[in-house]
Amino acid sequence: MSEPTQVVMFEVGGREFAFPLPVVQRVVAAVAFTPLPDNTPGICVAGDMIPVVDLRRRFHLPARDVELNDQIILVQTGTRRLAVLADAVKGVGECGPHQTLLDPEVGL
Length: 108
Fold this sequence. Notes:
By secondary structure, this protein is mainly beta. The chain has a single domain (about 20-95), classed as CATH 2.40.50.180. It has one helix and nine strands, in the order ββββββαβββ. A six-stranded mixed sheet has the order 3-7-8-6-5-4. The protein has a three-stranded antiparallel sheet with strand order 2-1-9, with no helix packed on it. Strand 4 and strand 5 (about 40-45) form a beta hairpin. The longest helix has 4 residues, at about 55-60. The two termini are about 25 Å apart.
């Protein structure tokens, strides 16, 4: 039987998601986005432009404008950094072996 995995839990569009704790670099307040060359939104963190992933669009949830209380989760995959827009970050918790985690390695 597998041990529970520590995760960062967050909410988007009323749904709960989680990333494994080791891939999360930090959580920051939502900021204005800058269009990247391929028209993907991005943010500048320590001089690096990082693409923003909108899970609302990815999972066909109702669209809405970014709100003042929204947060961005910076995650590091094996090959790149991503910024994931979240309605709220709930904190660190545990995920059992039969629950599904988001895996930034497979392209959110």
